[in-house]
Structures are given as structure tokens and as C-alpha cells.
Amino acid sequence: MQVMFIGAAHEVTGSCHYISACGKHILLDCGMEQGADTYENAELPVAAAEIDYVFLSHAHIDHSGLIPYLYAHGFRGQVFATTATTDLCNVMLRDSAHIQMFEAEWRNRKAKRAGKEEYVPLYELKDAVGAMECFVSCSYGQMVEVCEGIRLRFTDVGHLLGSASIEIWLTEGELTKKIVFSGDVGNFNQPIIKDPSYIDSADYLIVESTYGDRLHEREADNVATLASIIQETFERGGNVVIPSFAVGRTQEMLYFMRQIKEEKLIRGFEDFEVYIDSPLAVEATNIFHQNTEECFDEEALTMVRKGINPIHFEGLKIAVSADESKAINFNPKPKVIISASGMCEAGRIKHHLKHNLWRPESTILFVGYQANGTLGRAIYEGAKEVRLFGETIEVRAQIRKFLGISGHADKDGLLRYIQAFTKKPQKVFVVHGEDSVAESFAACLRNDYCMNAVAPFTGATYSLEDGALLREGSMTRVERQTTKQPTGVFARLLAAGQRLLTVIRHNEQGANKDLAKFADQINALCDKWDR
To answer: Which residues of the chain have pLDDT under 50?
Structure first.
């Protein structure tokens, strides 16, 4: 039994950890990196075709976004996730594929003019569709027998609709070890979804540390603060532009907007309009409606049972088509625009920033974490100008941060989660935190709570039998802060070859007649393509 740390090791995004046990190859999450990459991630120790299972904590792209890439390179195993996570991934992974394909089309138009090499997307829509066929939906609290020697259970961790901590039991011979993967631990008192639930035992804990070095600043009254920002902006004649994650944060903002409307907190603009400009957010909002009983907290459930839709109100406008999106910026009335992506890296939000960043009367309101190296982080930290669509845009709008609305637990929340274990885990692995944050949180657990805690670097490998370090991680930093490029169609062909080898091994005990036929088919294919 071994665990190897691949992604989100001394970094926040790209969550991915590898477990080898019971003759199986398992991934905990398979996420995409967002923003600047700090360390060169270790490669998976086996080919994608050899991965048997992915245990997925939640649907955010930095946890799920490379599952279609895994599929494109030969993965045909099973992805275990909660029902709501499966529902969300069904729209989020397709949306991510559309983004990959659109970006490739845009880059290739420029590359062709410049005589440059073709840009190949990480994956295509067919890969996202195929990946979804691998999903196995599970309920919270359900004990799942994955295979001989491996069991798991999902526990609501209050970060996002369907988000979970994952309890994993591994049994080899007489030895059983329990690993708990925290996923992203949720904040307390968030609207709509439940507070985090706790787990009481683990031999090994893999825990996130996004806010492991700080406490959240909190607004005295979220609704009143938001109403005040809207009121001030409207009186200046501007728009409130909210870069927001399409899943989770957008629905929370709608929850607050409904309350503002209901309590008539905006004076002089009572009929103000709120635009959701994100097809993904629209689909995600529908999925929220489908998962009320298992995922909503008591306050939201009470509304639903009274026939009140907690995230719908008069004046809510939906922009689905490109033309509807463009029309928003030609509407002169002050309004609220909620658009993805939440870190301003892609999607329609960039168009709304282009139309509003230069206007001192408008407000750009950040309501979520901005990863290092993203456009959102640059704007929030005071950039005087930014480049959008090849044009330099001066930043003159009011830049605001909505405090206390984070979907992540702060340091106290993380410690509360860890202290709920009635017996200290044998070892705690601290992941999913920026470089210094992961180190400081691990040091806190060691020094203040006498726990055996480490913040592993990518590639670090540990025994799950006794916790011993088997391989040091790599501290090699990325030389250029750029998004990793796909390696082209030839890499996909090599992956197909690796999958073929995996399929051949799976058929080792087959009947001689079938194996001979299989061999003839492979040789015929080779004869056709051998050059």
C-alpha cells in the first residue's frame, strides 16, 4: 500500500493523489491546474489505461477537470462520486471541453497566420461524454464495496453541492488501513448547503490547507453589505460586475439577491435587474433544484417546502446565447452582472470586464478565491491596467472583495475538522495550499497539536503500512509561469498504444482461440500502418 502526491502539493489547484493497493491503481481527484504553476508536477507512475478507479471529492474543475483527459489517454475504469457531483460534472466537464476546443480554434487561427505549429486541445467533447459513462453515483453515508479489499464512504463536507470527504478502507491480507481524504472542507453558515460533517477515525489523513494560515474576515451582515455595494454603485450610474464560479458561488449570490429584493433594501432602483451570464451557471442552478433533500440545509429546505424558490426572484435575467450576452453591455440601466469564470481566466466575464473596468462608476466585486497568476488575482491586488482581447484596459472601476463568503474553511475551521478525530491519525498529509501556507499549517499541527504532519512535495511517496517515506518529492520549480501545453496528437496515439497493452494483459487468461484472433487483428492493424 502506497500513496504518491501528484498535484496540489504546495499548490492550491490541480488536486490529484495516487494510491496503489490491493493490486489496484487509484486516483483521489484528477484536477486541472488553474493560474500559474509553481512546481513541475510528477507524472502518474502508471499509464492512464492502467488506472482502475478515481475517487472524486467534488465537481470543481481543479478537482475533476482532467478526468476527460485521462479518458482520452485510455482510462476506462470507474469514477466514484456523490450523486450531485455526478450531475454537476455532467455539465461542467462538457463545458470545460467546449472551452478547450474553442481556445484551440482561436489559437490555431492565429497560428496558421503566423506559420506556427497546430495547438491541440487537452481534450474534446467526445472525451467528456465518454468520461461520464465511467461515473458511479453514490449517496452520502453509503458504504460502497469497490472491489475485494477496497471500501469507501462519502461524507458531506459542506464546500459545494455534492462535495465530500472520502473514507477509504484498504485491506491486504490481515492488514487494514483507513485513509481519509478531506476534499475541500467547507466554511460554516454558508447559504443553501449544509455545514461540514465530521469523521471520527483515520490511520492517515490527507487534508487541504487553502486558508491554513489565516482566519476569514467576516461581514457583520452579508445581505446588508451586498445591498450597500449595489446601492452605492447604482447611485454612481455604474454596474456591479461579479466574477463568480458558475457552480456554488453563483447560487449563493442569487440567494442573497432574492433576500435583498424581498426586503426592499435597494432604494430608488427597486426593479433592478440581475443577469446570470453563464450557460453553465444556468444548468448548475437547475441541478441545485434537483438535489434539495440530500444537500440543502434546513433553512433552504424550509423555503422549498413552503413553495419558495430560494434562488429565484423578480428581475432575474438569464443570458444563454452569445447575442444575449452581448446585449447586456448595451443596456444603459445600472444592473448586477454575475458571470463566469470566477478567477476571470476564461468565459464571458472577460467581456464584461472589458466594458466595465475602465468605468469609475462601476464596481468589480470579487466573491471567491483568486489563485496566484490569474487575471482575477492581478486585478484584486491592484493592477493599474490589464490586457483583454489584445487591448490594454485601464483599471478605474471600484475593486471590492466580499468578505466571509469563502466556500473554504479558514484555519479554525480546518483545525475543528481535524480535532474531531477521536484518535490522532498516524500521519497527516497537508495538501492544497500555497507553498508557504501548506508548510505553516503542517508546522502548526506538529508544534501545537503534537501530530505527525508533513506537507509533501509532488512525487513524494509514502508507505500506508507504516507511514515511512519511500521517495522524496521534487522541489523543481516551473521556469516560466505559463499554462502547460498539450503535447499533441502523437501523445494521444502513444496513450492508445499503452491502453492496448493494458487490454492485452487483461486478456491473459482468455481462450487460445480468442487470443489468436485478437493477435491477428492487431497484426493486421500494424501491417496497415507500418511505415
So the answer is: 480-486
